Each structure stands twice: as structure tokens, then as C-alpha cells.
Amino acid sequence: MSHTGGEVHEPPGPDDELxxxxxxxxxxxxxxSSTDEVHQAVLHAATRLVPGVDHAxxxxxxxxxxxxxxxxxAVARAIDQAETRLREGPCIDAILDEGMxxxxxxxxxxxxxxxxxxxxxxxxxxxxxxVRIVVDQQKIGALNLWSDTPGRLDAASAxxxxxxxxxxxxxxxxxxxxxxxxTLREGLRSNREIGKxxxxxMAFHKVDETRAWAILRExxxxxxxxxxxxxxxxxxxxxxxx
Length: 242
Description:
Beta-Lactamase; five-stranded antiparallel sheet; about 20% strand; Arc Repressor Mutant, subunit A; two-stranded antiparallel ribbon; single chain; alpha+beta
């Protein structure tokens, strides 16, 4: 507690810190920041808000493959690689099984013996946790949380991680939907250009739509270019002033 000009100022409490960090993630997410920036903001929140966390990573399930999309450091990334290779660990279990896994001391009867051996032999990490991330009711990923101190990840850590998880899910979901929207816009733009190119080919070669589409595909194959790229070239040529 501090005094300034007769006023009493309370130090920021844990709830204030939560609000501040979550506000920062929200600002990044909805300001159109890059995917990497959003992911790193989530990991920064994990190391700042969850007691005992020294390293963190974000793993996603994509087409039946586990992919690390962000990590705080080389330690977290190396453990993720081992977890993926061995097909066992808190992050994989959090995605596929229960929403939260916690192992305060990997040296004492760990549920992931092969991963634990790797972690204990190759890294300073001694405790682990995995927290599921859900987007549109789909289990798409998890936060991996690692502590260098045995027993430092505890019930309080688990409680804070469970508070962080839904907000992390919202941030990842917003970013996911933004990427989907960008892909959709690009697809619509490409389709419009393809339609224009087919119309130009029909007029120039005096053929029907089926033949014009065949010409476009054949040209695409011969040039080893995407159909949309060839279509764009045709439209650009038609629109050129010479």
C-alpha cells in the first residue's frame, strides 16, 4: 500500500493483473495483429498469470497431426517435439482426453514415462500441465505449461490455468475465424477472375463455356500455374491499355 497526496493506493491484485493481461490479448486480437503475435500473447499470459510456469507452448491438432504453433523458448519447443514423436504427454492428453492434466513432479510416477525420461534427462523441467483449447466446440489444441521446480505447479496453478484457457480459446478462435474469412475472400476473388477469364475466352475463341474452361485448365497445366493465376493474367491482359 502506498500514499500519495493523502490518498491510499492499493497495489494491483491478481484480479487486476488478469484484467490487464486479458485486455492486452483482446486488443491484439481485434486490432488485426498477426497470428504469431496473438499466439505469443497467449503464451506470455500463461507465464505471467499461472504460478510456477517457466516455459509454455501452444500445440494445435491439424488434420490428425499435432503441430506446435508457438513456444516461449527452445526448451518448450524441444519438449513439444518429443511429445509429438512419442505420442504421449499432457498436451496431447488434454486435446484428446480430459480438458486439464497436471503432473507436479515428473520424477515421481509420471503418467508419461517416455516423455518424462526425455524431459528429466535433457531439460531443466520437472513439472508439467496441459490445458485444452476449444474453438467452435472442437478440441483443436492445448497449452503446454512447464515448471523447472518440482511441485511448483499445484492446485492454484491448475485453477489459474483453467481461468486462462477459455480466454485463450476466444483469442485463438477470433484469429482462426479471421484467417477463414481471409481465405474465403481470396477464394471469392479468384472465382470472379476465373469467371471473367472464361467469358473472355468464350468471346475470343467463339466457343462455349465448357470449351473455354478446358482451355483455361490446359493452359494452367502447360504453364504449371494455378488456374486462378492464369485467369488473372488473362483478365489483366484484357484490361491493359495497349
